[in-house]
Predict the structure.
Amino acid sequence: MALVAEPEQPSPDIYIPQEWSDAAESIAYDSITSPPPVAFICGAKNSGKTTFSRHLLNVLLKRYKKVAYLDTDVGQSEFTTPGFLSLTVVDKLTPDLTIPCLKTPERSFFFGDTSSKRDPKGYLSYISALYDYYRKEYSTANKEKTTKSELPLVVNTPGWVKGVGYEILVDMLKYIAPTHVVKINISTKNKNLPGGAFWLDYHSEEMVNLIEINAARQDSYNRSVLIQKDAHLMRDLRIMAYFRQCFASNLNISTIKELANALASQPPYEVPISSIKIRHLYSQVPPTEIFYSLNATIVGLAVSFEESESLPWCVGLGIVRGIDTLKGVLYVITPVPPSTLEKVDLFLQGFIQIPTSLLQVQGCVSPYMSTNVFSTS
């Protein structure tokens, strides 16, 4: 059985070519300390964007005590579960570039899907809000004095670079206006992004350092060797690793069966229905069916603000284990600490689901499969 302690299975040994090292070193050291660099990493699917981003993080951390990381890949998130857009402040080197690890982001949004295709406009609004937060807190580029130390920023992007995906990438580049753009090319040229500063208008005077590098692994014919990933499996493992955090690290929970049993016996939090709003991100649900649609699902736990209710910060995920409308409570399992959970006033439901492997463990009666919801009528 797969280990839930590992977010993904270790891939083959990471090879960092010299041009990758040179690119990372030039971003980290061939610039003045203030303002620090803003590096935007882009390229085709499976070209090595995440691996290069991890390597760049390590190089930057040798010069700066902390580095900000803006993750825009909702399908294969770096420090969060799938479906999130997040800004994370990293202060420790990553010893193994093959294995990602969960971190608590400083700010995050629950997009609720593994691709931006369903809502490109909303996707871009979340990214803009995260970058605005970075500028406010960690950059003086907006000519306002920040209360915290200036930090370099690494922006990792998804591999959807054609059609609408290309248009989204261009909008991101124009809004963020990075100091460095790293474009990773593969040998299949028709899958690459256009050459040069493709996002700039012809008459633009914007100054940017464009660095073009090739995918790390190539065969004897100089063809890119792309490491294919089981994206669905990796997402499931990341979700399971997240909910493994509900339990002490010294507990012996290392298999899917052990995690399923632990979650089935875990006492849930009682959340008053009266204190929560429910928002379905991509579907219309009749009022009489809201609780049925919410039961046995994963929800984003969010904190709304009066001045920006449409963009609520998300503090984590929860499993709605059951609903009792007579008592007026929702039963929720989550690793989010109670002090933070008390602030949650909004449940966001998207398309991030409980991994099927957790629901079909032999010998484990899953509480999520029962229809323990009372009628709302």
User: Anything to note?
Assistant: The chain has two domains: 18-224, 265-356.
